[in-house]
Amino acid sequence: MNSPDLLMGLGSVIYALSKIDGELQKEEVKAVREILLDEPHGDLAVCGFFLRDNFGYSTEEAYDTGMRRMAGEGIEVNRETRKRFINILLRVARAHDGASRAEWEFIRKFWRELLSMKASEGEVRIPMLSSTG
What we know:
- This protein is mostly helical.
- Helices cover 62% and strands 5% of the residues.
- The chain has six helices and three strands, in the order ααααβααββ.
- Strand 2 (119-120) and strand 3 (123-124) form a beta hairpin.
- The protein starts with a helix and ends in a 9-residue tail after the last strand.
């Protein structure tokens, strides 16, 4: 089951991805709504996305905030959830003229960070990211 923090964190990470090339694109915002509202409790991820937009978070601030939420106590991300999250990021990135190089790099970075955690019994723990980098 996805926790509220995990989904709010995902929304923040998706916002960071959408802002990586500058301003939010209309097609990306539409895709975010369509994709996330099809997910179980996806409305929480949509809230996370728009909270970051309303408060004018930078890409880095949104990403760090999202990862901190995903790293909350007791939150674990299994293989299926990781794949689902990456698929969501790919779909959002492709919504506006295909995925840019910066978006591909962002998604690869996110994937590497998920995989770099020590797995125990098929689960991956997401670390907090430092604000420096």
